[in-house]
Amino acid sequence: EDQVTQSPEALRLQEGESSSLNCSYTVSGLRGLFWYRQDPGKGPEFLFTLYSAGEEKEKERLKATLTKKESFLHITAPKPEDSATYLCAVQALGAGGTSYGKLTFGQGTILTVHP
Amino acid sequence: NAGVMQNPRHLVRRRGQEARLRCSPMKGHSHVYWYRQLPEEGLKFMVYLQKENIIDESGMPKERFSAEFPKEGPSILRIQQVVRGDSAAYFCASSPAGGHGYTFGSGTRLTVV
């Protein structure tokens, strides 16, 4: 069974204080690892998809990296508007290497950035 | 370029009533997924559908829950005889074939009183 564990559960930072969020996963065959941001009362907003170990992607103050067992979301010089819940999810390969469809999510990390 | 549209945004039902949640996928997307987010819990997969076809319903409760994605019109998640434990946020996502570009809607918040 696919599993995703995120840590820490909650993270409080001062504005400008860089840090990292962790996502550990086990999956039969990884098709993709997804990062989403979710604001209160809203749906998850897509950030990144990573497909293979060693891959990195960046968007503004965020950088996602991937190894065979975990992914990190690095936040550089965060601002209060980066406060949100960050969700990690994995998508497994189906039979024949096709997409299996569903995403398995972790519990999320609640990030609060104080001015 | 409308995203994934869900309605209603909020739905209140009395115990024993039926709840119908609607999801219109993004233009060009042929795959629809439903997820449930219980208070203080993560997103849990429920069902994966293509037009007129259920691909994976491994996350659906065995009773009272059903889903469809007809040839015309939105996908529907139907919950019969709702109970208080069904209170949650229900999210729909869509993607084109292949699963790339997985996009979520804003959700329907169901409250059972």
Describe the fold and architecture:
- The complex is a heterodimer of chains A (115) and B (113).
- Chain A is mainly beta and 115 residues long.
- Chain A has a single domain, classed as Immunoglobulins (Immunoglobulin-like, Sandwich), CATH 2.60.40.10.
- In chain A, 0% of the residues lie in helices and 62% in strands.
- In chain A, the strands form two sheets. In chain A, strands 2, 4, 5, 9, 10 and 11 form a six-stranded mixed sheet that branches. A five-stranded antiparallel sheet of chain A has the order 1-3-8-7-6, with no helix packed on it.
- Chain B has 113 residues and is an all-beta fold.
- Chain B is built from no helices and eleven strands.
- In chain B, strands 2, 4, 5, 6, 9, 10 and 11 form a seven-stranded mixed sheet that branches.
- In chain B, strand 9 and strand 10 (103-104) form a beta hairpin.
- The mean pLDDT of chain B is 93.
- The A-B interface holds A 31-32, 34, 36, 41-46, 49, 87, 89, 91, 99-108 and B 4, 31, 33, 35, 41-45, 48, 55-56, 58-59, 91, 98-100, 102-107, 109.
